[in-house]
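**Sequence with structure:**
===
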Amino acid sequence: MKQHRKKSVLQLCRLVIQILFFVFLPALYFQTLSGIRQLYTAIIHQQFSIALWPQMTEAIVIIPVTLLAGRFFCGWMCAFGSFTDFVYQISQKLFHKKIRISEPMDRGMKYLKYVVLLVLIIASWTLNASFFSSSSPWDVFGMLATVGKTPDFSYVLSNLTIGLVIFVLIVVASAFTERFFCRYLCPMGAVFSLVSKPKIVKINKPAGNCGNCRACTNACAMGIPLYRMDSVDSGECIDCMKCVSICPRKNAAAAVSGKDVRPLAAGITAAAVVAGMYYTADLTLTQIGKSTFPSVSQSGQTPSGGTGRSPGFVQSGGNTGEVSSSVGSALPSGQYKDGTYHGSGTGFRGGTTTVTVIVSGGKITAVNVDSNEDSPSFFDAAYTAVSSEIISSQSAEVDAVSGATYSSKGIMAAVANALQTAKV
Protein backbone atom coordinates (compact mmCIF):
# COMPACT_ATOMS: atom_id res chain seq x y z
CA MET A 1 0.00 0.00 0.00
CA LYS A 2 2.86 2.35 0.89
CA GLN A 3 4.54 1.78 -2.47
CA HIS A 4 1.26 2.41 -4.35
CA ARG A 5 0.81 5.67 -2.43
CA LYS A 6 4.37 6.72 -3.20
CA LYS A 7 3.97 5.99 -6.89
CA SER A 8 0.73 7.89 -7.15
CA VAL A 9 2.42 11.06 -5.88
CA LEU A 10 4.40 11.26 -9.12
CA GLN A 11 1.29 11.28 -11.32
CA LEU A 12 -0.56 13.58 -8.94
CA CYS A 13 2.24 16.16 -9.14
CA ARG A 14 2.30 15.78 -12.91
CA LEU A 15 -1.44 16.47 -12.97
CA VAL A 16 -0.96 19.63 -10.89
CA ILE A 17 1.71 20.87 -13.31
CA GLN A 18 -0.53 20.08 -16.27
CA ILE A 19 -3.34 22.12 -14.74
CA LEU A 20 -1.05 25.06 -13.96
CA PHE A 21 0.24 25.21 -17.52
CA PHE A 22 -3.28 24.73 -18.86
CA VAL A 23 -4.48 27.77 -16.90
CA PHE A 24 -1.50 30.12 -17.15
CA LEU A 25 0.38 29.12 -20.32
CA PRO A 26 -2.18 27.39 -22.53
CA ALA A 27 -0.90 28.60 -25.90
CA LEU A 28 2.74 27.48 -25.61
CA TYR A 29 2.11 24.59 -27.99
CA PHE A 30 0.40 26.65 -30.66
CA GLN A 31 2.88 29.51 -30.45
CA THR A 32 5.84 27.12 -30.64
CA LEU A 33 4.43 25.83 -33.93
CA SER A 34 3.87 29.43 -35.06
CA GLY A 35 7.44 30.31 -34.12
CA ILE A 36 8.78 27.48 -36.26
CA ARG A 37 6.59 28.68 -39.11
CA GLN A 38 7.90 32.21 -38.64
CA LEU A 39 11.47 30.96 -38.85
CA TYR A 40 10.69 28.87 -41.93
CA THR A 41 8.98 31.70 -43.83
CA ALA A 42 11.71 34.17 -42.87
CA ILE A 43 14.34 31.82 -44.28
CA ILE A 44 12.58 30.99 -47.57
CA HIS A 45 11.76 34.66 -48.18
CA GLN A 46 15.20 35.77 -46.98
CA GLN A 47 13.60 38.30 -44.66
CA PHE A 48 15.01 37.21 -41.32
CA SER A 49 15.21 40.08 -38.87
CA ILE A 50 15.93 40.52 -35.18
CA ALA A 51 12.45 42.08 -34.96
CA LEU A 52 11.02 38.57 -35.52
CA TRP A 53 12.63 37.11 -32.41
CA PRO A 54 9.76 37.95 -30.02
CA GLN A 55 7.42 35.98 -32.30
CA MET A 56 9.66 32.93 -31.90
CA THR A 57 10.04 33.05 -28.11
CA GLU A 58 8.31 29.73 -27.46
CA ALA A 59 10.29 27.86 -30.13
CA ILE A 60 13.55 29.38 -28.92
CA VAL A 61 12.81 28.06 -25.41
CA ILE A 62 11.10 24.71 -25.95
CA ILE A 63 13.09 23.26 -28.85
CA PRO A 64 16.48 23.33 -27.02
CA VAL A 65 14.90 21.87 -23.86
CA THR A 66 13.37 19.06 -25.93
CA LEU A 67 16.68 18.48 -27.69
CA LEU A 68 18.39 17.95 -24.34
CA ALA A 69 15.72 16.49 -22.04
CA GLY A 70 13.22 14.89 -24.42
CA ARG A 71 9.50 15.52 -24.74
CA PHE A 72 8.74 16.60 -21.17
CA PHE A 73 6.79 19.49 -22.67
CA CYS A 74 4.36 17.08 -24.34
CA GLY A 75 3.84 14.95 -21.25
CA TRP A 76 3.78 17.66 -18.59
CA MET A 77 3.12 21.10 -20.08
CA CYS A 78 1.23 21.00 -23.39
CA ALA A 79 -2.31 22.31 -22.82
CA PHE A 80 -3.75 20.47 -25.82
CA GLY A 81 -2.14 17.19 -24.73
CA SER A 82 -3.38 17.74 -21.19
CA PHE A 83 -6.86 18.43 -22.52
CA THR A 84 -6.91 15.08 -24.34
CA ASP A 85 -5.64 13.42 -21.12
CA PHE A 86 -8.59 14.91 -19.23
CA VAL A 87 -10.98 13.74 -21.94
CA TYR A 88 -9.55 10.22 -21.84
CA GLN A 89 -9.68 9.96 -18.04
CA ILE A 90 -13.28 11.19 -17.89
CA SER A 91 -14.28 8.80 -20.69
CA GLN A 92 -12.73 5.84 -18.87
CA LYS A 93 -14.63 6.71 -15.72
CA LEU A 94 -17.90 6.95 -17.61
CA PHE A 95 -17.66 4.24 -20.28
CA HIS A 96 -14.82 1.92 -19.19
CA LYS A 97 -14.05 1.41 -22.86
CA LYS A 98 -10.71 1.81 -24.59
CA ILE A 99 -9.67 1.01 -28.14
CA ARG A 100 -6.28 -0.67 -28.38
CA ILE A 101 -4.47 -0.38 -31.69
CA SER A 102 -2.24 -3.26 -32.74
CA GLU A 103 1.51 -2.70 -32.79
CA PRO A 104 1.87 -2.91 -36.60
CA MET A 105 -1.03 -0.49 -37.17
CA ASP A 106 0.20 1.83 -34.44
CA ARG A 107 3.66 1.89 -35.97
CA GLY A 108 2.28 2.77 -39.40
CA MET A 109 -0.22 5.35 -38.16
CA LYS A 110 2.49 7.27 -36.33
CA TYR A 111 3.87 8.35 -39.70
CA LEU A 112 0.66 10.31 -40.29
CA LYS A 113 1.86 13.21 -38.15
CA TYR A 114 4.81 13.67 -40.49
CA VAL A 115 2.37 13.85 -43.40
CA VAL A 116 0.35 16.48 -41.51
CA LEU A 117 3.53 18.48 -40.87
CA LEU A 118 4.53 18.24 -44.54
CA VAL A 119 1.08 19.40 -45.69
CA LEU A 120 1.27 22.37 -43.31
CA ILE A 121 4.72 23.32 -44.57
CA ILE A 122 3.79 23.12 -48.24
CA ALA A 123 0.16 24.23 -48.33
CA SER A 124 -0.08 26.66 -45.44
CA TRP A 125 3.43 27.96 -44.77
CA THR A 126 4.69 28.05 -48.35
CA LEU A 127 1.59 28.56 -50.49
CA ASN A 128 -0.58 30.34 -47.88
CA ALA A 129 -3.62 28.24 -48.75
CA SER A 130 -6.71 29.97 -47.36
CA PHE A 131 -8.33 26.63 -46.43
CA PHE A 132 -6.37 26.49 -43.19
CA SER A 133 -7.80 29.77 -41.89
CA SER A 134 -11.05 28.02 -40.96
CA SER A 135 -9.78 24.51 -40.28
CA SER A 136 -7.50 24.88 -37.29
CA PRO A 137 -8.58 22.77 -34.29
CA TRP A 138 -6.27 24.87 -32.09
CA ASP A 139 -8.22 28.03 -32.91
CA VAL A 140 -11.37 26.16 -31.87
CA PHE A 141 -9.62 24.99 -28.70
CA GLY A 142 -8.69 28.59 -27.89
CA MET A 143 -12.25 29.83 -28.45
CA LEU A 144 -13.90 27.08 -26.41
CA ALA A 145 -11.37 26.35 -23.67
CA THR A 146 -10.52 29.88 -22.55
CA VAL A 147 -10.05 29.96 -18.79
CA GLY A 148 -12.33 32.60 -17.27
CA LYS A 149 -14.24 33.24 -20.50
CA THR A 150 -17.53 31.90 -21.80
CA PRO A 151 -16.94 29.55 -24.77
CA ASP A 152 -17.63 31.45 -27.98
CA PHE A 153 -19.72 28.82 -29.76
CA SER A 154 -21.37 31.31 -32.13
CA TYR A 155 -18.04 32.52 -33.49
CA VAL A 156 -16.72 28.98 -33.87
CA LEU A 157 -19.84 27.80 -35.70
CA SER A 158 -19.82 30.73 -38.11
CA ASN A 159 -16.08 31.09 -38.76
CA LEU A 160 -14.34 27.84 -37.82
CA THR A 161 -16.79 25.19 -38.98
CA ILE A 162 -14.22 22.83 -40.48
CA GLY A 163 -11.92 23.32 -37.51
CA LEU A 164 -14.80 22.47 -35.17
CA VAL A 165 -15.50 19.21 -37.03
CA ILE A 166 -11.81 18.26 -36.81
CA PHE A 167 -11.72 19.24 -33.12
CA VAL A 168 -14.77 17.10 -32.30
CA LEU A 169 -13.28 14.11 -34.12
CA ILE A 170 -10.05 14.52 -32.16
CA VAL A 171 -11.98 14.66 -28.88
CA VAL A 172 -13.99 11.53 -29.72
CA ALA A 173 -10.88 9.60 -30.77
CA SER A 174 -9.01 10.78 -27.65
CA ALA A 175 -11.85 9.56 -25.44
CA PHE A 176 -11.12 5.93 -26.34
CA THR A 177 -7.46 5.92 -27.42
CA GLU A 178 -5.08 7.68 -25.05
CA ARG A 179 -3.16 10.57 -26.65
CA PHE A 180 -4.63 9.77 -30.09
CA PHE A 181 -3.79 13.20 -31.49
CA CYS A 182 -0.28 13.23 -30.01
CA ARG A 183 0.49 9.78 -31.41
CA TYR A 184 -0.82 10.15 -34.94
CA LEU A 185 -1.69 13.71 -35.97
CA CYS A 186 0.27 16.34 -34.04
CA PRO A 187 2.65 18.27 -36.32
CA MET A 188 4.64 19.53 -33.34
CA GLY A 189 4.80 15.92 -32.17
CA ALA A 190 6.53 15.13 -35.47
CA VAL A 191 9.02 17.94 -34.87
CA PHE A 192 9.61 16.94 -31.25
CA SER A 193 9.99 13.27 -32.18
CA LEU A 194 12.88 14.18 -34.49
CA VAL A 195 14.40 16.83 -32.25
CA SER A 196 14.41 14.67 -29.10
CA LYS A 197 16.59 11.91 -30.56
CA PRO A 198 19.84 13.15 -28.88
CA LYS A 199 18.17 13.53 -25.44
CA ILE A 200 20.13 12.60 -22.33
CA VAL A 201 17.04 11.95 -20.16
CA LYS A 202 15.72 8.44 -20.77
CA ILE A 203 13.78 5.65 -19.11
CA ASN A 204 15.96 2.67 -18.20
CA LYS A 205 14.28 -0.73 -17.74
CA PRO A 206 16.62 -3.72 -18.19
CA ALA A 207 14.53 -6.33 -20.00
CA GLY A 208 16.31 -9.12 -18.12
CA ASN A 209 14.73 -7.92 -14.89
CA CYS A 210 11.23 -7.70 -16.32
CA GLY A 211 8.51 -10.23 -15.71
CA ASN A 212 5.71 -11.10 -18.11
CA CYS A 213 3.21 -8.53 -16.86
CA ARG A 214 3.86 -5.90 -19.58
CA ALA A 215 2.42 -3.37 -17.14
CA CYS A 216 4.66 -0.63 -18.51
CA THR A 217 3.57 -1.24 -22.11
CA ASN A 218 -0.10 -1.34 -21.15
CA ALA A 219 0.26 1.94 -19.23
CA CYS A 220 2.23 3.79 -21.92
CA ALA A 221 0.20 6.78 -23.13
CA MET A 222 1.96 6.68 -26.50
CA GLY A 223 1.55 2.96 -27.13
CA ILE A 224 5.30 2.25 -27.20
CA PRO A 225 6.14 -1.50 -26.92
CA LEU A 226 8.27 -0.98 -23.82
CA TYR A 227 8.49 -4.69 -23.02
CA ARG A 228 11.05 -5.01 -25.82
CA MET A 229 13.36 -2.24 -24.60
CA ASP A 230 16.21 -1.92 -22.13
CA SER A 231 16.29 1.86 -22.57
CA VAL A 232 13.48 4.01 -23.94
CA ASP A 233 15.20 6.25 -26.45
CA SER A 234 12.20 6.50 -28.80
CA GLY A 235 11.27 9.99 -29.98
CA GLU A 236 7.65 9.00 -29.32
CA CYS A 237 8.20 8.96 -25.54
CA ILE A 238 6.59 11.98 -23.85
CA ASP A 239 8.25 11.36 -20.46
CA CYS A 240 4.91 11.02 -18.67
CA MET A 241 6.60 8.51 -16.31
CA LYS A 242 3.52 6.28 -16.17
CA CYS A 243 5.75 3.28 -16.83
CA VAL A 244 7.89 4.23 -13.83
CA SER A 245 4.81 4.64 -11.65
CA ILE A 246 3.21 1.33 -12.65
CA CYS A 247 6.20 -1.01 -12.61
CA PRO A 248 5.66 -3.56 -9.76
CA ARG A 249 9.37 -4.49 -9.73
CA LYS A 250 10.71 -0.91 -9.67
CA ASN A 251 12.61 -1.87 -12.79
CA ALA A 252 11.71 1.24 -14.81
CA ALA A 253 13.59 4.35 -13.73
CA ALA A 254 14.34 7.81 -15.07
CA ALA A 255 17.99 8.36 -15.89
CA VAL A 256 20.17 11.28 -16.97
CA SER A 257 23.20 10.23 -18.99
CA GLY A 258 22.72 6.69 -17.72
CA LYS A 259 22.48 7.60 -14.03
CA ASP A 260 19.18 7.07 -12.22
CA VAL A 261 17.41 10.18 -10.94
CA ARG A 262 14.15 10.79 -9.13
CA PRO A 263 11.44 10.96 -11.83
CA LEU A 264 9.44 13.57 -9.93
CA ALA A 265 12.49 15.79 -9.61
CA ALA A 266 13.14 15.42 -13.34
CA GLY A 267 9.58 16.43 -14.24
CA ILE A 268 9.41 19.39 -11.87
CA THR A 269 12.84 20.60 -13.01
CA ALA A 270 11.83 20.40 -16.68
CA ALA A 271 8.62 22.37 -16.02
CA ALA A 272 10.47 24.98 -13.96
CA VAL A 273 13.16 25.38 -16.61
CA VAL A 274 10.61 25.83 -19.39
CA ALA A 275 8.56 28.36 -17.40
CA GLY A 276 11.63 30.26 -16.21
CA MET A 277 13.26 30.33 -19.63
CA TYR A 278 10.00 31.38 -21.26
CA TYR A 279 9.41 34.41 -19.06
CA THR A 280 13.09 35.41 -19.22
CA ALA A 281 13.25 35.01 -22.99
CA ASP A 282 9.91 36.74 -23.47
CA LEU A 283 11.07 39.79 -21.55
CA THR A 284 14.49 39.84 -23.24
CA LEU A 285 13.31 39.24 -26.81
CA THR A 286 10.44 41.70 -26.46
CA GLN A 287 12.91 44.39 -25.43
CA ILE A 288 15.15 43.45 -28.37
CA GLY A 289 12.16 43.70 -30.71
CA LYS A 290 11.22 47.07 -29.24
CA SER A 291 14.75 48.38 -29.70
CA THR A 292 14.21 47.92 -33.43
CA PHE A 293 11.21 50.27 -33.16
CA PRO A 294 12.22 52.62 -30.31
CA SER A 295 9.01 54.64 -30.54
CA VAL A 296 6.86 51.68 -29.49
CA SER A 297 5.16 52.30 -26.15
CA GLN A 298 2.70 49.88 -24.61
CA SER A 299 0.64 50.53 -21.52
CA GLY A 300 0.12 47.89 -18.86
CA GLN A 301 3.83 47.16 -18.60
CA THR A 302 5.34 45.01 -15.92
CA PRO A 303 7.56 46.76 -13.35
CA SER A 304 10.63 45.47 -15.17
CA GLY A 305 9.55 47.18 -18.35
CA GLY A 306 8.21 44.18 -20.24
CA THR A 307 4.84 43.88 -21.84
CA GLY A 308 3.45 41.49 -19.27
CA ARG A 309 2.79 39.16 -22.19
CA SER A 310 1.39 35.76 -21.29
CA PRO A 311 0.52 33.26 -24.01
CA GLY A 312 -2.95 32.54 -22.74
CA PHE A 313 -6.31 32.69 -24.42
CA VAL A 314 -7.71 35.04 -21.77
CA GLN A 315 -8.27 38.45 -23.30
CA SER A 316 -7.67 41.84 -21.87
CA GLY A 317 -7.93 45.32 -23.27
CA GLY A 318 -6.46 48.71 -22.71
CA ASN A 319 -3.15 48.27 -24.53
CA THR A 320 -2.02 51.38 -26.33
CA GLY A 321 0.96 51.87 -28.52
CA GLU A 322 2.57 53.61 -31.43
CA VAL A 323 4.84 52.56 -34.25
CA SER A 324 6.43 55.31 -36.30
CA SER A 325 8.79 54.96 -39.22
CA SER A 326 10.23 57.13 -41.92
CA VAL A 327 8.92 56.22 -45.35
CA GLY A 328 11.41 55.81 -48.17
CA SER A 329 11.34 58.14 -51.16
CA ALA A 330 10.50 55.23 -53.44
CA LEU A 331 7.01 55.08 -51.98
CA PRO A 332 4.30 57.04 -53.81
CA SER A 333 3.42 60.36 -52.27
CA GLY A 334 0.03 62.01 -52.04
CA GLN A 335 -1.92 58.78 -51.60
CA TYR A 336 -3.71 60.20 -48.59
CA LYS A 337 -4.84 63.56 -47.30
CA ASP A 338 -2.86 64.85 -44.34
CA GLY A 339 -4.61 64.53 -41.01
CA THR A 340 -5.46 62.31 -38.08
CA TYR A 341 -7.97 59.51 -38.67
CA HIS A 342 -9.70 57.08 -36.32
CA GLY A 343 -10.97 53.58 -37.09
CA SER A 344 -11.95 50.28 -35.52
CA GLY A 345 -11.77 46.63 -36.50
CA THR A 346 -12.59 43.18 -35.14
CA GLY A 347 -9.78 41.07 -33.69
CA PHE A 348 -9.49 37.85 -31.68
CA ARG A 349 -12.79 36.43 -30.40
CA GLY A 350 -14.69 39.38 -31.86
CA GLY A 351 -12.85 41.93 -29.71
CA THR A 352 -12.67 45.51 -30.99
CA THR A 353 -9.37 47.19 -31.84
CA THR A 354 -9.37 50.98 -32.27
CA VAL A 355 -6.54 52.94 -33.87
CA THR A 356 -5.50 56.43 -34.79
CA VAL A 357 -3.66 56.77 -38.09
CA ILE A 358 -1.55 59.86 -38.74
CA VAL A 359 -0.95 60.97 -42.32
CA SER A 360 1.73 63.57 -43.08
CA GLY A 361 3.06 64.57 -46.48
CA GLY A 362 0.49 62.33 -48.10
CA LYS A 363 1.86 59.22 -46.39
CA ILE A 364 1.02 57.10 -43.36
CA THR A 365 3.61 58.05 -40.76
CA ALA A 366 2.19 56.49 -37.58
CA VAL A 367 -0.32 53.90 -36.41
CA ASN A 368 -1.41 54.42 -32.82
CA VAL A 369 -3.42 51.73 -31.06
CA ASP A 370 -5.92 53.43 -28.77
CA SER A 371 -7.47 50.29 -27.29
CA ASN A 372 -8.01 46.60 -27.95
CA GLU A 373 -9.99 43.73 -26.46
CA ASP A 374 -7.54 41.15 -27.68
CA SER A 375 -5.37 38.55 -25.97
CA PRO A 376 -2.06 40.20 -24.95
CA SER A 377 0.00 37.33 -26.33
CA PHE A 378 -1.52 37.42 -29.80
CA PHE A 379 -1.82 41.19 -29.96
CA ASP A 380 1.77 41.86 -28.89
CA ALA A 381 3.02 39.37 -31.48
CA ALA A 382 1.03 41.08 -34.23
CA TYR A 383 1.26 44.76 -33.39
CA THR A 384 4.86 45.74 -34.11
CA ALA A 385 5.18 43.69 -37.30
CA VAL A 386 1.80 44.60 -38.81
CA SER A 387 2.05 48.31 -38.01
CA SER A 388 5.55 48.65 -39.44
CA GLU A 389 4.49 46.77 -42.57
CA ILE A 390 1.49 49.08 -43.02
CA ILE A 391 3.78 52.11 -42.80
CA SER A 392 6.34 50.58 -45.15
CA SER A 393 3.81 49.49 -47.78
CA GLN A 394 1.44 52.44 -47.29
CA SER A 395 -1.43 50.00 -47.29
CA ALA A 396 -3.63 48.26 -44.72
CA GLU A 397 -3.38 45.04 -46.74
CA VAL A 398 -0.26 43.33 -45.42
CA ASP A 399 0.64 39.80 -44.33
CA ALA A 400 -0.78 38.64 -41.03
CA VAL A 401 1.63 37.52 -38.33
CA SER A 402 1.79 33.75 -38.01
CA GLY A 403 0.10 32.63 -34.81
CA ALA A 404 -1.68 35.96 -34.39
CA THR A 405 -3.88 36.00 -37.47
CA TYR A 406 -7.01 37.35 -35.81
CA SER A 407 -5.12 40.09 -33.98
CA SER A 408 -3.37 41.03 -37.22
CA LYS A 409 -6.68 41.22 -39.07
CA GLY A 410 -8.14 43.38 -36.30
CA ILE A 411 -5.31 45.92 -36.66
CA MET A 412 -5.51 45.89 -40.46
CA ALA A 413 -9.29 46.29 -40.43
CA ALA A 414 -9.06 49.21 -38.01
CA VAL A 415 -6.44 50.95 -40.15
CA ALA A 416 -8.47 50.34 -43.32
CA ASN A 417 -11.51 51.78 -41.57
CA ALA A 418 -9.55 54.86 -40.55
CA LEU A 419 -8.17 55.40 -44.04
CA GLN A 420 -11.56 55.32 -45.76
CA THR A 421 -11.82 59.10 -45.53
CA ALA A 422 -8.10 59.75 -45.97
CA LYS A 423 -7.63 58.53 -49.53
CA VAL A 424 -7.23 61.16 -52.21
